[in-house]
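Supplementary Methods, section 5.1.

A reviewer requested that the exact input to the structure prediction be made available. We therefore reproduce it here, unchanged from the version used in the analyses.
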Amino acid sequence: MPPTFAGKRGLVLGVANRRSIAWGIAKRLADGGAELAFTFQGERLEKTVRELADSVGSPLVTACDVRSDTEIERVFGEVAERFDGGLDLLVHSVAFAAAEDLEGRFTDTPRERYWLALDVSAYSLVACARAAEPLMAARGGGAILTMTYLGGERAVPHYNVMGVAKAALDASVRYLAWELGAKNIRVNAVSAGPVRTLAARSIAGFPTMEAIVEERAPLHRHIDTDDVGAAAAYLLSDEARNVTGTTLYVDSGYHAMGM
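The structure derived from this sequence is encoded token-by-token as follows.
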């Protein structure tokens, strides 16, 4: 039986369209009975996110620029107001690097865009976890999940500064898990293989990445958002109540291979 989320309240950051990993996770949670709030980044995505949120009966859809502490504070204030001061689940599926920094040499990444990638892709988890902490504590605990990638552990051609950002994100998961565990708040990550999302289109050589995974992974097959959603649902559920500070790989076993 899939995990149940009846009576749970969650916030999902990072939905862009129906193919988004964040939406695959949200759909699993909603199907399990969770009540979900959503954020969107910029007017271009608002209509799509609102339509998807409406399809699962979301009570709150709001804009959020994760580079702004003021914006994050406002969003979690709205969540607290809508969810009676409590929050059980937080899905952080947010990352960004300039397209030109995913094509050229990592060595040539300019300082300002280096910090931009780390700010959006890694520090935003810390900022959101800080804002979520009192709301989850009010509910007796909670679960936070973020999305990482093998490029944070190994050099993946063209992943460049995003790999550095994912490495910072991975370390943040461990430190947050240690600190927030005292309040029964778990923090985990899913490391997915190549998934055809809007963000993936900006990575030069993405089709090559897919082909290599299919060839060399033990299961010799691609993964999709449903696969990631199922793994995320486990980590966010009470069935994983003693799992924290962990990265769960959903990549057909590719991460286990030496070459």
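The longest strand covers residues 185-192. These observations are discussed further in the main text.
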